[in-house]
Design goal:
Elements: E1 11-18, E2 23-29, H1 41-47
């Protein structure tokens, strides 16, 4: 099955908390994954980003979609 989301991170289900309508599912990431971001050149310069710099990636996502392989 094809999915619209492109960034995929392997994970194991850690816990499930069910409510009447919604359920909270927590995951443990299994293996590291490569991620990418698109930002303005001005932002790259303001942050003084260089290859090899250590940074924190702050992920802002609308959905996390679990899929069984």
């Amino acid at each position: 099955m094809e999915y619209g989301a492109r960034n995929k991170i392997s994970a194991k289900v850690k816990s499930i908390k069910k409510g009447d309508v919604m359920a909270l599912v927590k995951y443990k990431v299994i293996k590291p994954s490569e991620m990418a971001s698109v930002l303005t050149t001005e932002s790259v310069e303001d942050l003084d980003l260089k290859v090899g710099d250590e940074v924190q990636l702050i992920i802002k996502a609308v959905h996390v979609l679990p899929a069984k392989p």
